[in-house]
Amino acid sequence: MVSSEQRRRQLAREKYERQMERRAEAMAARKRRNTILGASLAVVVLAGGGTLFATGAFSSDDKGKSASAADSPKAAPTKAGEPTTPTRKPVEGCTDPAPGAPNGKQWQAEPAMSVDPSGSYTMALDTNCGKVTIALDAAKAPHTVNSFAFLAGEKYFDHTKCHRLTTDGIFVLQCGDPTASATVPGGTGGPGYKFADENLTGATYPAGTVAMANSGPGTNGSQFFLVYKDTQLPPKYTPFGKITGGLDVVQKIAAAGTLEGSPDGHPMADVTFNSATVSKG
Predict the structure, then answer these.
(1) pLDDT at 87 (0 to 100)
(2) Where are the beta strands (DSSP E) in 49-120?
Protein backbone atom coordinates (compact mmCIF):
# COMPACT_ATOMS: atom_id res chain seq x y z
CA MET A 1 0.00 0.00 0.00
CA VAL A 2 1.26 3.47 -0.87
CA SER A 3 1.77 5.57 2.24
CA SER A 4 0.49 9.14 2.51
CA GLU A 5 4.09 10.39 2.44
CA GLN A 6 4.85 8.44 -0.76
CA ARG A 7 1.65 9.77 -2.32
CA ARG A 8 2.58 13.33 -1.34
CA ARG A 9 5.99 13.00 -2.95
CA GLN A 10 4.46 11.48 -6.09
CA LEU A 11 2.02 14.38 -6.40
CA ALA A 12 4.88 16.84 -5.89
CA ARG A 13 6.88 15.23 -8.69
CA GLU A 14 3.87 15.19 -11.01
CA LYS A 15 3.21 18.86 -10.29
CA TYR A 16 6.85 19.65 -10.98
CA GLU A 17 6.75 17.88 -14.36
CA ARG A 18 3.60 19.79 -15.33
CA GLN A 19 5.28 23.06 -14.40
CA MET A 20 8.29 22.18 -16.53
CA GLU A 21 6.12 21.44 -19.56
CA ARG A 22 4.22 24.72 -19.20
CA ARG A 23 7.42 26.71 -18.83
CA ALA A 24 9.04 25.05 -21.82
CA GLU A 25 6.00 25.97 -23.91
CA ALA A 26 6.09 29.54 -22.58
CA MET A 27 9.79 29.86 -23.39
CA ALA A 28 9.25 28.57 -26.92
CA ALA A 29 6.58 31.23 -27.43
CA ARG A 30 8.90 33.87 -25.95
CA LYS A 31 11.69 32.82 -28.29
CA ARG A 32 9.41 33.20 -31.31
CA ARG A 33 8.37 36.65 -30.11
CA ASN A 34 11.96 37.69 -29.48
CA THR A 35 12.94 36.65 -32.99
CA ILE A 36 10.46 39.21 -34.28
CA LEU A 37 11.49 41.85 -31.77
CA GLY A 38 15.18 41.35 -32.49
CA ALA A 39 14.97 42.92 -35.94
CA SER A 40 13.23 46.06 -34.73
CA LEU A 41 15.52 46.48 -31.73
CA ALA A 42 18.81 45.80 -33.49
CA VAL A 43 19.75 49.50 -33.36
CA VAL A 44 19.22 49.50 -29.60
CA VAL A 45 21.47 46.46 -29.24
CA LEU A 46 24.29 48.09 -31.18
CA ALA A 47 23.90 51.35 -29.32
CA GLY A 48 24.01 49.51 -26.02
CA GLY A 49 27.48 48.15 -26.62
CA GLY A 50 26.28 44.62 -27.31
CA THR A 51 23.81 44.36 -24.44
CA LEU A 52 21.49 41.56 -25.49
CA PHE A 53 18.96 41.65 -22.67
CA ALA A 54 16.89 44.32 -24.39
CA THR A 55 15.94 41.97 -27.22
CA GLY A 56 15.76 38.76 -25.27
CA ALA A 57 18.57 37.50 -27.48
CA PHE A 58 19.99 35.27 -24.80
CA SER A 59 19.46 31.52 -24.61
CA SER A 60 17.01 30.12 -22.12
CA ASP A 61 18.36 27.18 -20.18
CA ASP A 62 15.58 26.88 -17.64
CA LYS A 63 13.94 23.52 -17.09
CA GLY A 64 11.13 24.92 -15.05
CA LYS A 65 13.41 25.20 -12.10
CA SER A 66 13.30 28.95 -12.29
CA ALA A 67 10.32 30.95 -11.18
CA SER A 68 7.78 31.67 -13.90
CA ALA A 69 5.17 34.40 -13.74
CA ALA A 70 2.94 32.01 -11.85
CA ASP A 71 5.68 31.34 -9.30
CA SER A 72 6.92 34.91 -8.91
CA PRO A 73 6.67 36.74 -5.57
CA LYS A 74 3.03 37.35 -4.83
CA ALA A 75 2.45 40.95 -3.83
CA ALA A 76 0.12 41.43 -0.88
CA PRO A 77 -2.36 44.30 -1.47
CA THR A 78 -2.21 47.25 0.89
CA LYS A 79 -5.29 49.00 2.23
CA ALA A 80 -5.01 51.38 -0.69
CA GLY A 81 -5.00 48.45 -3.08
CA GLU A 82 -1.36 48.85 -4.08
CA PRO A 83 1.03 45.87 -3.95
CA THR A 84 3.84 45.41 -1.49
CA THR A 85 6.90 43.22 -1.90
CA PRO A 86 7.85 40.34 0.39
CA THR A 87 10.15 41.31 3.24
CA ARG A 88 13.63 39.83 3.19
CA LYS A 89 14.89 38.80 6.63
CA PRO A 90 18.53 38.38 7.68
CA VAL A 91 19.85 34.82 7.47
CA GLU A 92 22.51 33.76 9.94
CA GLY A 93 25.91 33.37 8.31
CA CYS A 94 25.03 35.49 5.26
CA THR A 95 26.57 38.91 4.70
CA ASP A 96 26.14 41.60 2.08
CA PRO A 97 27.36 40.45 -1.36
CA ALA A 98 30.54 41.93 -2.75
CA PRO A 99 29.84 45.00 -4.89
CA GLY A 100 29.51 44.38 -8.58
CA ALA A 101 27.13 43.09 -11.23
CA PRO A 102 27.13 40.14 -13.66
CA ASN A 103 29.04 40.91 -16.83
CA GLY A 104 26.34 39.29 -18.97
CA LYS A 105 28.75 38.14 -21.66
CA GLN A 106 27.32 36.17 -24.58
CA TRP A 107 28.81 33.68 -27.04
CA GLN A 108 27.38 32.20 -30.22
CA ALA A 109 28.85 28.73 -29.83
CA GLU A 110 29.95 26.28 -27.17
CA PRO A 111 33.62 26.83 -26.30
CA ALA A 112 36.23 24.52 -27.80
CA MET A 113 37.23 21.64 -25.56
CA SER A 114 40.13 22.53 -23.29
CA VAL A 115 39.65 20.26 -20.28
CA ASP A 116 41.28 16.86 -19.90
CA PRO A 117 38.54 14.23 -19.42
CA SER A 118 40.98 12.16 -17.37
CA GLY A 119 41.88 15.09 -15.12
CA SER A 120 40.46 16.23 -11.80
CA TYR A 121 38.76 19.61 -11.61
CA THR A 122 37.35 21.58 -8.69
CA MET A 123 34.83 24.40 -8.75
CA ALA A 124 34.88 26.84 -5.84
CA LEU A 125 31.83 29.00 -5.23
CA ASP A 126 32.54 31.90 -2.90
CA THR A 127 29.08 33.03 -1.85
CA ASN A 128 28.02 35.70 0.60
CA CYS A 129 26.64 32.86 2.75
CA GLY A 130 29.78 30.71 2.76
CA LYS A 131 32.01 28.71 0.46
CA VAL A 132 30.93 25.66 -1.52
CA THR A 133 33.48 23.32 -3.11
CA ILE A 134 32.50 20.95 -5.93
CA ALA A 135 34.43 18.05 -7.44
CA LEU A 136 33.66 18.14 -11.17
CA ASP A 137 33.28 14.90 -13.14
CA ALA A 138 35.15 15.59 -16.38
CA ALA A 139 35.21 11.90 -17.27
CA LYS A 140 31.42 11.52 -17.42
CA ALA A 141 30.46 15.10 -18.35
CA PRO A 142 33.42 16.59 -20.25
CA HIS A 143 31.43 19.17 -22.24
CA THR A 144 29.63 20.38 -19.12
CA VAL A 145 32.83 20.70 -17.12
CA ASN A 146 34.52 22.38 -20.08
CA SER A 147 31.70 24.92 -20.28
CA PHE A 148 31.90 25.69 -16.58
CA ALA A 149 35.67 26.06 -16.70
CA PHE A 150 35.28 28.47 -19.62
CA LEU A 151 32.49 30.53 -18.03
CA ALA A 152 34.25 30.71 -14.67
CA GLY A 153 37.41 31.88 -16.43
CA GLU A 154 35.37 34.65 -18.06
CA LYS A 155 34.02 35.61 -14.61
CA TYR A 156 30.55 34.96 -15.98
CA PHE A 157 29.16 33.70 -12.67
CA ASP A 158 30.64 36.47 -10.53
CA HIS A 159 27.91 38.55 -8.82
CA THR A 160 25.10 36.32 -10.09
CA LYS A 161 22.34 35.28 -7.70
CA CYS A 162 20.77 31.93 -6.90
CA HIS A 163 17.22 32.63 -7.94
CA ARG A 164 15.20 29.57 -6.95
CA LEU A 165 14.80 27.35 -3.91
CA THR A 166 12.48 24.35 -3.67
CA THR A 167 11.74 22.80 -0.28
CA ASP A 168 9.00 20.19 -0.75
CA GLY A 169 9.51 16.91 -2.62
CA ILE A 170 12.33 18.45 -4.66
CA PHE A 171 15.20 19.91 -2.64
CA VAL A 172 17.39 22.11 -4.81
CA LEU A 173 18.95 25.55 -4.93
CA GLN A 174 19.16 26.82 -8.52
CA CYS A 175 21.79 29.29 -9.68
CA GLY A 176 23.68 30.45 -12.76
CA ASP A 177 21.29 32.94 -14.35
CA PRO A 178 22.96 36.35 -14.85
CA THR A 179 19.57 38.00 -15.42
CA ALA A 180 18.13 36.96 -12.04
CA SER A 181 17.76 39.41 -9.19
CA ALA A 182 16.88 39.01 -5.54
CA THR A 183 13.18 39.69 -6.15
CA VAL A 184 12.52 39.53 -9.89
CA PRO A 185 12.12 36.00 -11.29
CA GLY A 186 15.00 34.81 -13.42
CA GLY A 187 15.29 31.52 -15.21
CA THR A 188 15.69 32.52 -18.83
CA GLY A 189 19.29 33.75 -18.78
CA GLY A 190 22.16 31.88 -20.35
CA PRO A 191 25.51 32.36 -22.09
CA GLY A 192 24.08 32.44 -25.62
CA TYR A 193 25.03 28.86 -26.53
CA LYS A 194 23.59 25.47 -25.66
CA PHE A 195 25.14 22.04 -25.49
CA ALA A 196 24.07 18.42 -25.30
CA ASP A 197 23.12 16.40 -22.25
CA GLU A 198 25.64 14.03 -20.69
CA ASN A 199 25.77 11.32 -18.03
CA LEU A 200 22.02 10.71 -17.96
CA THR A 201 21.97 6.90 -17.99
CA GLY A 202 20.95 5.81 -14.52
CA ALA A 203 21.29 9.37 -13.20
CA THR A 204 20.14 9.94 -9.63
CA TYR A 205 20.15 13.05 -7.47
CA PRO A 206 21.19 12.35 -3.88
CA ALA A 207 22.21 15.17 -1.55
CA GLY A 208 25.36 16.89 -2.76
CA THR A 209 24.66 16.36 -6.46
CA VAL A 210 25.32 19.27 -8.80
CA ALA A 211 23.37 19.06 -12.07
CA MET A 212 22.31 21.16 -15.03
CA ALA A 213 18.95 22.87 -15.37
CA ASN A 214 17.52 22.91 -18.88
CA SER A 215 14.43 23.56 -21.01
CA GLY A 216 14.45 20.19 -22.73
CA PRO A 217 16.94 17.78 -24.32
CA GLY A 218 20.17 19.41 -25.46
CA THR A 219 19.45 22.87 -24.03
CA ASN A 220 22.11 23.16 -21.33
CA GLY A 221 23.54 26.64 -20.80
CA SER A 222 24.73 28.14 -17.52
CA GLN A 223 21.98 27.37 -15.02
CA PHE A 224 22.56 24.56 -12.56
CA PHE A 225 21.22 23.31 -9.25
CA LEU A 226 22.68 22.13 -5.97
CA VAL A 227 20.83 19.24 -4.33
CA TYR A 228 20.84 19.69 -0.56
CA LYS A 229 18.64 16.67 0.31
CA ASP A 230 18.04 13.39 -1.51
CA THR A 231 15.68 14.17 -4.39
CA GLN A 232 13.83 11.96 -6.85
CA LEU A 233 13.90 13.36 -10.37
CA PRO A 234 13.76 11.70 -13.78
CA PRO A 235 17.22 11.27 -15.38
CA LYS A 236 16.90 14.38 -17.53
CA TYR A 237 19.40 16.71 -15.86
CA THR A 238 23.12 16.24 -16.46
CA PRO A 239 24.87 15.44 -13.15
CA PHE A 240 28.39 16.85 -13.43
CA GLY A 241 29.72 17.26 -9.91
CA LYS A 242 29.52 16.48 -6.22
CA ILE A 243 29.67 18.91 -3.32
CA THR A 244 32.75 18.07 -1.26
CA GLY A 245 32.63 21.05 1.07
CA GLY A 246 29.90 23.47 2.08
CA LEU A 247 26.84 21.26 1.81
CA ASP A 248 25.95 22.67 5.22
CA VAL A 249 26.01 26.15 3.67
CA VAL A 250 23.38 25.14 1.11
CA GLN A 251 21.32 23.38 3.78
CA LYS A 252 21.44 26.53 5.93
CA ILE A 253 20.17 28.57 2.99
CA ALA A 254 17.37 26.05 2.46
CA ALA A 255 16.45 26.03 6.15
CA ALA A 256 15.76 29.76 5.96
CA GLY A 257 13.03 29.06 3.41
CA THR A 258 11.82 31.22 0.57
CA LEU A 259 11.17 34.92 0.38
CA GLU A 260 7.55 34.23 -0.49
CA GLY A 261 7.02 31.68 2.27
CA SER A 262 6.10 29.08 -0.35
CA PRO A 263 7.86 25.74 -1.03
CA ASP A 264 9.06 27.08 -4.40
CA GLY A 265 10.39 30.62 -4.70
CA HIS A 266 13.34 32.92 -4.20
CA PRO A 267 15.67 32.01 -1.32
CA MET A 268 15.12 34.14 1.75
CA ALA A 269 18.91 34.48 1.78
CA ASP A 270 20.05 36.81 -0.98
CA VAL A 271 22.54 34.20 -2.20
CA THR A 272 25.14 35.73 -4.50
CA PHE A 273 28.37 34.39 -5.95
CA ASN A 274 31.13 36.83 -5.07
CA SER A 275 33.26 34.67 -7.36
CA ALA A 276 33.30 31.27 -9.04
CA THR A 277 36.48 29.54 -10.13
CA VAL A 278 37.43 26.20 -11.68
CA SER A 279 40.89 24.77 -11.15
CA LYS A 280 42.61 21.56 -12.21
CA GLY A 281 43.92 19.18 -9.60
Answers:
(1) 85
(2) 76-77, 83-84
